[in-house]
Design a protein that fits this description.
Oligomer: single chain
Number of strands: 5
Shape: globular
Strand order of the largest sheet: 2-3-1-4-5
Largest sheet: 5 strands, parallel
Distance between the termini: 25 Å
């Protein structure tokens, strides 16, 4: 990596629990700082922001993002900076128009934000060279790849559709088919984008990460050229962390307390719902292959 470049690990796809677990494990590596969902960086300055108010303004240190000393210092270094985030269907439409060269998005400050995060992170972990962004958003990845000063490594996290749908259904307290279709659209679009652009990436199975972590983490370490401590669970509990957004339950505990597979869908989804998910997602089993 050139001296003026910033290392970036970007988690694409996934879901609420999977991305938080993966990012917190990777954040225990000496050269990695887990910054959470940086796509919400600008929104955190507005506590009354709709939809994201309850979760996105929280830092894992226990304070809201506006009150956390770490994030206050990042903002002090660059007041009023905005991170790129293109939400929902409009974001994907803009991405298609960008690829077709029919639309040029405004400039954003992600490189400056990442430099400031890196500088502040090195006060906590002197060996940090790489920032982890678990924003998961495909249009955001496209925007970051345009930045020549970023050396980006992509982890494509895939969760089986049953747990994914159940997680979104519970969190948003509505919808079912919407989340099934979202699983298909998000994962198919990510897979197609990575393949068509020929981007080097590593596919991570959420279920394998939880049930066979040693094997899955060894492959991730090789891909990212990092080394995790053997006691990464203990390390996540004792190190100072400042993760934006993420899984609310994990933020409340302020640590990665263990690797427990969330298979609550087995009792919370009806037989009919499971059948519908299986029928609609069966043609997309290829997504878990490299």
């Amino acid at each position: 990596m050139a001296s003026d470049q910033i290392g970036l690990i970007y988690i694409l796809g996934g879901g609420h629990s999977g991305s938080t677990v993966l990012s917190m494990i990777l954040g225990t590596a000496g050269q990695v700082f887990n910054a959470g969902e940086i796509k919400f960086f600008g929104r955190h300055r507005h506590p009354d922001a709709p939809r994201w108010q309850e979760v996105s303004n929280i830092c894992i240190c226990g304070q809201d993002a506006a009150g956390c000393p770490f994030w206050r210092e990042v903002i002090r270094l660059g007041p009023d900076l905005e991170a790129f985030y293109a939400q929902g269907a409009k974001g994907y439409l803009n991405l298609i128009l960008q690829i077709a060269r029919l639309y040029s998005p405004p400039e954003f400050d992600d490189t400056s934000i990442l430099r400031h995060i890196l500088l502040c992170a090195q006060q906590i972990k002197p060996d940090v060279t790489t920032i982890l962004d678990m924003s998961k958003n495909l249009p955001r990845l496209h925007q970051l790849l345009r930045q020549e000063s970023l050396e980006t490594s992509i982890l494509f996290l895939i969760r089986e559709p049953y747990g994914y749908v159940n997680s979104y259904r519970k969190r948003h307290r509505k919808g079912f088919l919407r989340w099934v279709l979202q699983w298909i659209l998000v994962n198919v679009s990510c897979k197609a984008y990575l393949h068509l652009r020929g981007l080097r990436h590593h596919i991570v199975s959420y279920e394998n990460l939880i049930t066979t972590p040693q094997e899955e983490l060894a492959r991730i370490e090789d891909f990212l050229a990092i080394r995790l401590p053997e006691n990464y669970l203990e390390e996540s509990r004792k190190q100072e962390s400042h993760v934006r957004a993420g899984n609310p339950a994990m933020i409340r505990s302020q640590a990665l307390t263990g690797l427990i597979l969330d298979d609550s869908w087995k009792t919370e989804l009806s037989f009919f719902q499971v059948w519908i998910i299986r029928a609609l997602t069966f043609p997309f089993g290829f997504l878990t292959r490299g």
